[in-house]
Design goal:
Helix content: under 10%
Strand order of the largest sheet: 1-2-7-4-5
Number of strands: 18
Structural class: mainly beta
Radius of gyration: 33 Å
Shape: rod-shaped
Number of helices: 1
Order of helices and strands: EEEEEEEEEEEEHEEEEEE
Distance between the termini: 115 Å
């Protein structure tokens, strides 16, 4: 329209018709004890979640079947998320950005029970209002709820028991005395190490003691009177001590 100077015009204001499009997105969940892999994938290749990540959040809500430990948290990449409300987690997709739209979620806690346990959630993708990003549950769910189960395996404890002769004179220890080691649940590639110390306490090493696991004998070629202790340790493949047991010896 051409505007002529000095002429009066009637201005008609019309409200724009805003069309709100719901992105076609699916959420799939794959469980790997004790981790869950979640994929958010656009059904239409032209729908790019990555372009809208700052307004999307993945919300995990506990179903109430199992209460989470008080210190429960979710690890996603290098980030850890605490619960938001009771047994729920809010995970902003912008924080978890990656190329494949796959996220590996690991449920962590120092208070897990030793027995096997399952933690049930529903997972939904929410589109949040940019003005209330801190409250994504006030946004709109754009996917159907998907069941999500974190399975915590039963904790297998390693146990160690040593029996045998504990008291002998110098001659007896020079010849060697028998002992027996029993191990329950030896870790894969685990090893047993033995270190000898003088006295009931303290950390003064006594290197004269020889412990033969193959022969089941403990000997000391120059045993002198006193009290000693052997510390048997079981180490896992990473070299971490998973179990230890003291074995006290007396030379009369």
């Amino acid at each position: 329209m051409q505007v002529v100077p000095g002429k009066t015009y009637d201005l008609e204001i019309r409200e724009s018709e805003e069309r709100e499009e719901t992105p076609k997105v699916t959420v799939t969940c794959k469980t790997e004890d004790p981790t869950v892999i979640i994929t958010c994938k656009a059904e239409d290749p032209r729908e790019e979640i990555a372009q809208k990540e700052k307004t999307f959040a993945l919300v995990l809500t506990g179903t109430g079947e199992t209460e989470l430990p008080e210190d429960a948290r979710l690890k996603v990449g290098k980030r850890e998320y605490r619960t938001s409300g009771k047994d729920s987690f809010i995970l902003p997709l912008g924080d978890m950005q990656n190329e494949n739209s796959n996220w590996k979620l690991t449920l962590l806690s120092d208070l897990f029970p030793e027995e096997e346990k399952e933690y049930h959630f529903t997972a939904q993708l929410y589109q949040t209002d940019p003005f209330t990003e801190s409250m994504p549950l006030k946004g709109k769910a754009v996917t159907e709820p998907r069941e999500l189960i974190f399975k915590k395996a039963e904790k297998v404890r390693t146990a160690l028991k040593i029996t045998g002769v504990r008291i002998s004179d110098s001659e007896g220890w020079r010849k060697g005395q028998s002992f027996n080691v029993q191990v329950l649940n030896m870790p894969p590639e685990g090893q047993i190490t033995v270190t000898a110390y003088e006295g009931l306490t303290g950390w003064q090493r006594s290197d004269a003691w020889n412990v033969s696991m193959e022969e089941g004998k403990i000997s000391n070629a120059c045993a002198s009177k006193g009290t000693f202790r052997l510390i048997f340790e079981i180490k896992n493949a990473a070299g971490e001590v998973v179990c230890l047991a003291p074995y006290y010896l007396i030379v009369k």
